[in-house]
Design a protein that fits this description.
The chain has 445 residues and is an alpha/beta fold. It contains 16 helices and 16 strands. The mean pLDDT is 94. Bound molecules: pyridoxal-5'-phosphate. The site of pyridoxal-5'-phosphate (PLP) has 13 residues, from helix 5.
């Protein structure tokens, strides 16, 4: 009987975190590629590129970041930027160069976490040292993190020599890595306050940690108030890297790294991105083995994006297509949630009821089912099996390497689910929410 109802319904996927293919800027990518091929020195684009990426592109990204964030510490300079082939590989390269399975004592991941980062840490030999840190109202729980860092440091028999030595080409190994998505987090949707960001940097400095922040959703932002102009949002929330270099006592290596990607603002298949950090750290990024063998790992793709950035096509795509589309979808989705799910006890995590003057953004929101009569996993299962709507159940966002993660999440994110508005059009999103409402009613029987 259950199968029959679900078979009559078109599947709706609210789990995947990808843009609708119609939002890929195909014409702009084509124009940028053609412009590249019309250049006399097109052969240069097809050769191996410089390790840190094209210097023009690094400069163009630095200018674009300066414009997007207006950092108090001053303009972003190209020496702070290296081209990567996306945030995932950016993280992998950072770990190859700046972490060491012997010396690095812990990877601290905000939980609920972007679970696909976990295997990247394991690949770097850091399995067994990957821990979750709960996310509170204001981002990562600093008190918890501080206590755990102290505990681990006190219980480690140091000095323990890194296997990766300075002489071997590893000029700086961090003792800890912290991984977070401080703005429009995946999955929670939360944004960390500036005060909390400062607190995190202070902790990182004290414990020799590198905070890697995936800043991949920052520029996709809009006012929550319907009718409010987009200009109202101003520049992006200061990144950890900008705060780090503006706080007295910063080191030559720094304690923060911003991991950026064109996957969310051009197209995922482009596989190009950048990292920003202190110039010393960026310079060492150019010595990652797989980069030295052949240069910048995303050379051709990055030159295409460079054309899009320098022609204004990228900014225009973000401002005129992505933001208005996502904003409209977000409005429809949140309205439908309030109408159909709030009466059943559901809440959007972080929703304070008053949306005037606030900013939303990114790809995701997180629902809490704590106020419902049925449990989160049962709701997700019923939604899929009976109503053919897929949501990302809270259980997938724990840190699997940390046995305590699931226990900590019992009272919070495990009773929820992540929903994405980037993949589906408005009408499908609303249909999906209506189906979830039915699933909750069924699951509560
Ligand atoms: C937080 C976060 N980091 C990284 C990625 C992947 O980025 P890239 O495609 O640049 O590897 C995603 C994609 O969903 C993400 O949400």
């Amino acid at each position: 009987m259950i199968a029959k109802i679900s078979e009559t319904l078109e599947p709706i996927n609210l789990q995947g975190g990808w843009p609708t293919p119609r939002l890929h800027p195909t014409k702009e990518i084509e124009a940028a590629s053609s412009a590249l091929f019309r250049q006399k020195d097109v052969q240069q684009s097809l050769r191996y590129g410089p390790e840190l990426g094209s210097s023009n592109f690094r400069g163009a990204i630095a200018d674009w970041l300066t414009e997007s964030y207006a950092p108090k510490a001053g303009s972003v300079v190209s020496e702070r930027v290296a081209i990567t082939n996306g945030a995932s590989n950016g993280l992998a390269c950072v770990l190859q160069k700046f972490s060491d399975p012997c010396y690095t004592q812990g990877v601290w991941m905000v939980e609920p976490t972007y679970f696909l980062a976990c295997p990247i840490f394991r690949d770097a030999g850091l399995g067994g040292k990957i821990f979750g840190v709960p996310e509170g109202k204001d981002g990562i729980d600093l008190e918890y993190l501080g206590n755990r860092l102290r505990e681990v440091d006190e219980n480690t028999l140091l000095p323990m020599e890194p296997r990766k030595t300075v002489e071997g080409g590893y000029p700086k190994i961090y003792r800890h890595i912290v991984y977070i998505i401080p703005t429009f987090s995946n999955p929670s949707g939360g944004t960390m306050s500036v005060e909390s960001r400062k607190g995190l940097i202070e902790l990182a400095r004290k414990h020799d940690a590198l905070v890697v922040s995936d800043d991949v959703y920052d520029v996709l932002r809009w006012p929550t108030l319907e009718g409010e102009t987009l200009e109202k949002v101003g520049t992006c929330t200061p990144r950890l890297v900008d705060i780090d270099r503006n706080l007295e006592g910063f080191s030559a290596w720094g304690n923060t790294l911003s991991n950026g990607s064109f996957s969310k603002i051009v197209a995922p298949g482009i596989r190009a991105g950048w990292v920003e950090a202190m110039p010393a750290l960026i310079s060492a990024m150019g010595t990652v083995g797989a980069t030295v063998s052949g240069g910048c790992q995303a050379h051709f793709a990055s030159l295409v994006v460079e054309k899009m950035l320098s022609s204004g096509a990228l900014s225009s795509h973000i401002q005129k297509t992505l933001i208005p589309t996502y904003r409209t979808r977000w409005l429809s989705m949140t309205k439908a949630i309030r109408k159909h799910l709030y009466p059943l006890g559901v809440r959007i995590v972080g929703d304070e009821g008053e949306t005037v003057g606030k900013i939303a953004g990114g790809f995701f929101l997180y629902l809490s089912f704590k106020g419902c009569s049925a449990s989160g996993p049962t709701i997700a299962k019923t939604a899929l099996e009976k109503y053919n709507v897929k949501i990302a159940p809270g259980g997938i966002f724990s840190v699997p390497d940390d046995p305590e993660s699931k226990i900590r999440g019992e009272d919070t994110y495990l009773h929820g689910a992540r929903l994405c508005w980037a993949w589906n059009e408005e009408v499908v999103l609303v249909d999906g929410i209506e189906r979830i409402a039915k699933a909750i009613l069924d699951a509560s029987k």
